[in-house]
Design brief:
The chain is mostly helical and 459 residues long. Helix content is 61%, strand content 5%. It is elongated and about 100 Å long.
Length: 459
């Protein structure tokens, strides 16, 4: 089949070359964006008198019908076409004749594909932001439900200090709130129209780029036509944002997997978001969390792929840039699927405060509070730290806890110990005393919940 770009070339390529060159198998995802962009372009051509208004209206009607037919299934994508742009133009010309060939006046596939990709990513970013908001809401609701539940906080995966389970959850809410900010920033730089840049140097026609940009919902137009067709920074930025989101999901997944194990038993994931074993009937596997953790590497790969494609490219457009789409499409679809499942997983999990409290009662995680008790009695922290460490050593040797030592045993280490030491090292007291801004006290957790909800409301 001769190509629509035939002229200098015969337009007849080897079947193997056709298959290698073709992108319609994946860029067909952008059929809607491609047609909407073409409709705006046809409007501009008619308004500026570059083509007649009558021709413009015929083209717009033809494009609108193609979109309708694709969406209702009466028109199927022809995968023998080179790309989605050529497919739409070919169908349009078949339906309305020679006037269809006027659509491509004052534009190139170079700015056309850049436009389509930006439009596609704007939609994906809007969807991802909405899903992030739903996930944050689910986390905040769960944090409020368990704000009074005491658990061990960890450093180096070792029990460190007592915290509120709500406080631990809100750490992830903070991560995802930053992700929302990143999505907003990425959207701002994606929301720039390249259409009208043509192949690279602009056009001799008196076009109205601002009209097309406004019609398609863009905030502005790119100021340099070469950059307009060759810029894929917005793809890199999008996949960087997507990778950060996945990294946060992966970290959260790791904790959900640990917490739901028999060794921790801090939480139970709902049956709807777990699976069983094919051979071990007792198993309840956190497969959804594991898949989110696993898919993180996939999105990282998408980011590295686009960075590598762009690494050595001269200006302006090069066919290498056809390789941008599969990475972008895969990254967007993966993040969206993971966010959808994750919010549901958080909404339906059940915590076990009694198991968290039991774990927090072991491991001497109130030893810092023991040292702080002595500091408040006037002792230097390093001296208090050494005494607290010696007391912990005694407890380990004698299989005791800080709570079970007698006051006489405490006084063997320092005479300033009084009966109030037991209240000072009570786990609930330890948590509530950490009332510094952003701390784990129950009142602080409530304040954090209020702040995040207000940020969501105002975003």
């Amino acid at each position: 089949m001769a190509k629509m770009w035939a002229g200098r070339n015969e337009g007849i390529t080897d079947k193997l070359a056709d298959d290698f060159n073709s992108s319609i198998s994946f860029d067909c995802k952008m059929y809607k964006q491609d047609i909407e962009g073409s409709i705006a372009h046809a409007m501009m051509l008619g308004l500026k008198g570059i083509i007649s208004k009558a021709d413009s209206e015929v083209i717009i009607d033809g494009l609108s019908q193609i979109l309708t037919d694709l969406e209702n299934g009466s028109l199927k994508i022809d995968y023998n076409a080179e790309d989605i742009h050529m497919f739409v133009e070919q169908v349009l010309t078949e339906r309305i004749g020679e006037v269809g060939k006027k659509l491509h006046t004052a534009r190139s596939r170079n700015d056309q594909v850049a436009l389509d990709l930006r439009m596609y990513l704007k939609e994906q970013l809007t969807c991802i932001k909405s899903l992030l908001r739903e996930l944050v809401k689910a986390i905040v609701n769960k944090a409020e439900q368990y704000k009074l539940s005491v658990m061990p906080g960890y450093t180096h995966l070792q029990r460190a200090q007592p915290i509120s389970f709500g406080h631990q959850l809100l750490a992830y809410a903070s991560m995802f709130m930053r992700d929302i900010e990143r999505v907003n920033d990425c959207y701002k730089r994606t929301n720039v129209s390249p259409i009208g840049s043509c192949a690279l140097a602009g056009t001799t026609y008196e076009t109205d780029r601002e009209f097309e940009a406004k019609k398609l919902g863009f905030a502005s137009v790119c100021i340099n036509s070469i950059d307009g067709v060759s810029d894929r920074d917005f793809c890199v930025e999008f996949l960087s944002v997507a990778s950060t989101i996945m990294m946060h999901l992966s970290r959260f997944s790791e904790e959900l997997i640990l917490w739901s194990s028999w060794e921790f038993k801090f939480i139970t994931l709902a049956d709807e978001y777990t699976t069983g074993s094919s051979i071990m009937p007792q198993k309840k596997n956190s497969d959804m969390a594991e898949l989110c953790r696993g898919k993180t590497g996939r999105v990282y790969g998408d980011l590295i792929s686009i960075l590598t494609v762009l690494k050595g490219l001269p200006l302006a457009y090069n066919k290498d840039m056809q390789e941008d789409k599969e990475s972008v499409f895969d990254g967007a679809e993966t993040v969206i699927k993971c966010l959808e499942i994750f919010a549901k997983m958080i909404e339906t999990l059940t915590a076990h405060p009694e198991n968290m409290k039991k774990a927090a009662s072991e491991g001497f995680i109130n030893a810092t509070d023991l040292a702080d008790y002595l500091v408040k009695k006037g002792m230097a922290f390093r001296s208090a730290y050494k005494i607290a460490g010696s007391i912990v050593k005694k407890c380990i040797a004698e299989n005791k806890t800080l709570e079970t030592l007698t006051i006489d045993e405490y006084k063997e280490f320092d005479a300033s110990f009084e009966e109030d030491i037991y209240n000072a090292i009570d786990l609930n007291t330890c948590v509530e005393k950490r009332s510094s801004q952003g701390g784990t006290s129950f009142s602080s957790v409530e304040k954090q919940i209020s702040i995040i909800r207000e940020l969501l409301k105002n975003d």
